[in-house]
Structure formats: C-alpha cells, structure tokens
Design a protein that fits this description.
The chain contains eleven helices and six strands. It is α/β, with parallel strands linked by helices. The strands form two sheets. A four-stranded parallel sheet has the order 4-3-5-6, sandwiched between helices. The two termini are 17 Å apart.
Length: 243
C-alpha cells in the first residue's frame, strides 16, 4: 500500500471524515481551489474563501460542536501538509551533467571518437541509480568542444528550475579554444551560481578512467564511461540523500 492512501486513511479516521470519499478529498485538496479546503460537515468540502464572511463562520460553529469544528479544520490542514510531503518525496530527482565531449560521449572534428550518449556516464549513472530504487533523471548537458566560458554562459538554460544536483565536468578545452577567463575563474563562478539556486555540485573526475581511452587518444571508451559512473555513484547518493 502506498504512503498517500495509508496516511489519508489515518487522517480520515482520526478526524471523522469517513463519509468524504478519499478520491474526492485528494482531488479537491490538490486542485488550485482546494489547497485551502475545509471540512464543513462530514461528506462536504468547501474553500477557505467561503469563510471570509464572519456570519458564515458563526453559522458553521453553531451547526457543529466546537470540538468537531476544530477537528474538521485541523483534519483538512493536516491532510494538506501530508500531501505536500508525499508529493515532494514522490517527485523525480533531477540531475544535470554539465560538461564537454567526455560528458556528451563523443568528440567532434579530428577527435570524433568516443561513445553514443546512451553509453556516456550520465545515462549509465541514471541506470545505476534506478537499479537502486532512486527515481532519478540524469540529463546529459554535455557539448563537444565546449569551454568553461560556454558552460557559464549557458548555465541557466542547461540547468532548469527543479534541478537538485549538477555534475560538472569542466573539460580541457579552455586552453585549446582560448577561453577568456579559464577554468580557475569560471568553475568557482558556476559553482557559486548553482549554490545560490540551492543546487548541489559534484566535480566529475574523468582521470579516474584515464586508462580507458579510445583510438582517438582523447575520449573514453564505454568501459571508461562506466568507471566514471561507478565512481560518481556513491557521491551522488550522498548528495541526494535517501530514497
């Protein structure tokens, strides 16, 4: 039995709202007009705006005993809080892997070796998390040839609202493509901007798989990408917390 129906049943029994269908209670409280719902009588839900009229409030307390009225109000408010908590727990964990070609999986131009996005560490990490019971989505925001200048510039578009964690792979393109500031300046700025949004950051250590470079001499093989994902897994679990 899932958490939401079980908790709804407990609240219903405590606050004497058995006559209100559980599906009706949930749908009304979830709706834009129902987040402030009150249990006026058993079997009936109304919106808080109805109680801006003092006469209506007095009629409500006259119809019901004071204790029953208080129970009804507390029941609705507690159920609303529970729904907020359950929704937060049930929400998918959004993770973004921000980086260059090692994150994307494959390079371009003369160094176009590597793997497909399905074999890159973000996809492998998502599979590992899901195998351990985490409802996680790892978005691959790797761009081949990108510099830390580019990552900083596209930070807001690449890391949407609701992201819980960013795995940052700065890459080695700054020197090759003439980044204006360089990783020593840009990476701290990227981290600071993300933390200001409440997003945790992990730096991906691609050197852990340095022995698994493909024929182009730069990009990781599928096994190398697996090694990176395995090294990141405990760090990611530590950052996102328990299931």
């Amino acid at each position: 039995m899932s958490t939401l129906p079980r908790l709804t049943g407990i609240v219903s029994s405590i606050f004497h709202v058995q006559q209100v269908p559980r599906s009706e209670v949930i749908s009304l409280i979830r709706s834009p007009l129902g987040w402030y719902g009150l249990l006026e009588k058993p079997g009936m839900l109304v919106h808080w705006s109805d109680y801006r009229d003092p006469q209506r409030i007095r009629r409500f307390f006259r119809l019901e005993s004071p204790m029953r009225a208080v129970h009804s109000i507390l029941g609705a408010l507690l159920l609303t809080c529970i729904l907020h908590v359950v929704d937060a727990e049930a929400a998918s964990i959004n993770i973004v892997a921000l980086g260059a070609s090692q994150t994307a999986g494959r390079g371009n131009g003369r160094h176009s070796g590597g793997v497909s996005p399905e074999q890159a560490f973000p996809a492998q990490l998502e599979s590992m998390l899901r195998a351990r019971g985490y409802d996680a989505q790892v978005t691959n925001a790797g761009v081949a040839g990108d510099t830390t200048d580019g990552m900083l510039a596209r930070l807001d578009s690449s890391v949407p609202t609701g992201t819980k964690l960013v795995i940052l792979q700065p890459g080695t393109n700054d020197g090759k493509h003439g980044a204006s500031a360089g990783a020593s300046v840009n990476v701290p700025q990227i981290i600071q901007k993300l933390k200001a949004r409440g997003i945790k950051v992990i730096i991906a250590n691609m050197r852990s798989a340095a022995a698994d470079v493909g024929p182009d001499g730069q990009h990781l093989t599928a096994h190398g990408q697996t090694v990176v994902a395995e090294r990141l897994l405990p760090q990611v679990i530590g950052a996102i917390g328990r299931r």
